[in-house]
Amino acid sequence: MENIISQKVKEMQPSGIRVFFDLVLGMKDVISLGVGEPDFVTPWQIREAGIFSLEQGFTSYTSNKGLYKLRLSIARYLKNRYGIEYCPDEEILITVGVSEGLDLACRAIINPNDKILVPLPCYVSYGPMVELAGGIPVYIDTQKSHFKVDPSVLEKHIDQHTKGIILNYPSNPLGVSYTRRELEAIKKVILKHNLLCITDEVYGDLTYDFEHTPFPVLSGAKTSTVYLNGFSKGYAMTGWRIGYACGPKEIIAAMTKIHQYTIMCVSITSQMAACEAMHSGKKSVEEMKREYKRRREFVVAELNRVGLTCHKPEGAFYAFPSIKATGLSSMEFSQKLLKEEKVAVVPGTAFGKPGEGYIRISYASSMDNLKEALRRIEHFLSIHRRKHGCTR
Amino acid sequence: MDEILEILEKDGRASIEDIAKMTRKKPQDVRKAIEKYKKEGVILKYKAVINKELAKDSDAQVRALIEVNIVPQKDLGFDKIAERIYSFPEVASCYLVSGTYDLLLIAEGKDLNTVARFVAEKLAPLENVRGTATHFLLKKYKEDGVILRHKEENKRIAISY
Questions:
Q1: Which of A41, A123, A371 faces B161 most closely, judged by CB atoms?
Q2: Which value does ipTM take for this structure?
Q3: How is residue B115 annotated by DSSP?
Q4: Which of A254, A280, A306 is the last residue of a domain?
Q5: CATH of B62-139, one of 3.60.15.10, 3.40.50.150, 3.30.70.920, 3.40.50.2300
Q6: CB spacing of B159 vs A344 below 8 angstroms
Q7: pLDDT digits (tens, 9 = 90+) for A254-290
Q8: A86 within 8 A of A92, measured Cβ to Cβ
């Protein structure tokens, strides 16, 4: 059987975290701060639009690129909100979440042994997607620069085989985002070396301290950018599996080619619901964002108070506190916390080696859960800090 | 609406310390703001949202919407007669509305009889009341933004990237 599996897939790093995940899934009454999706359900008017479309008999395929009215409303939204213009005919493709968009972008641009820069820690799929497409991920450790991409460090990783970079802001797992000024500095390096930027901005709507700046908005960047976004996080639509890719028409055409053979089109129900999200969902997004922001303030203040130092994340719904004071590894900390206090978090190492010494905490959870979980974490620390002779 | 009010509207038991953390304000500033809201009558009181159908021995097992037609009084309009009506303990809510009737009441009682007697013996005979129409509530689905059913089950998987 071993011989049946393709070499490429065999070589893919299995997620070392799977065992821990199974442990969490097998336990009862756990307070989980390990969930990578909103705790809100999709706003009712969006769900209702999906139901209504089924009642009306919209059960067919759509065009490969997705419903024109959805692409048009995305184009209008991007123009009104950020001032970027994408042609709904040629420069926008509706995808099965950002995940598919990322896979398509990698496969559309990567030739064998092309290098793609991937800042770490990062979302789990970036490296494997690059490898599956035949490329080589070149990881950049961002720990020393407060988990932000340092343009000068970035430049040091570039050689003649480097084809592009995958950016993600606000970041899962870090919550880190970039101001326009910070992005300009990164853009300079990318344009200087003629790289392509694949930017995953699915958490863009959840930016708390400043206006989110999509990468293609930066002057000169649009022709070198594949902009990926979706409905999962902002609109709480993870299970609908719908997102979109915007970029130069040649790249979108190449991505559409793969998409038409592999996916055909995104579920029409999801597309109809997404139309409603574009039409009337903004108010719900703002309400959820205000709620996340309050939880962020609470969680970051509490984490720092109990002794897990934590930079304030600018976006998404994750905090990435250091657990170094306990002397435990990320995995040990997460396993012990689960067994002793029944609180689930994700070890930082799930997102790459530079995540060692950190854990990811998702605050997409009710205030009651967050309060109780932090109380348990405080209790846990009071025991383990003593054991390891650490002081705060 | 101010953020403090938004938090308290969702959770009247949120502590001053927690609100301070959530809004990045000093606890004493939150306390002051809440005191001010109380003084101005913006915050009137804190109470639990109770599903009275489940609460045993409740005096409010039966609820009715009552439409009331009234004769407004010279100089006083509807206010004086409304006050006479809403002062009855059976009246849980009282609104002046536009349309084919004037006051909309929500009346509560321990059984059908109690509410019916309230209408027949106290409300209808009032001098300025021209007529009433009573609708007994059969089932409550949602009240003041709260959906009245048991706690939602968690539909998310416990851990994901």
A1: A123
A2: 0.82
A3: H
A4: A280
A5: 3.30.70.920
A6: yes
A7: 999 999 999 999 999 999 999 999 999 999 999 999 9
A8: yes
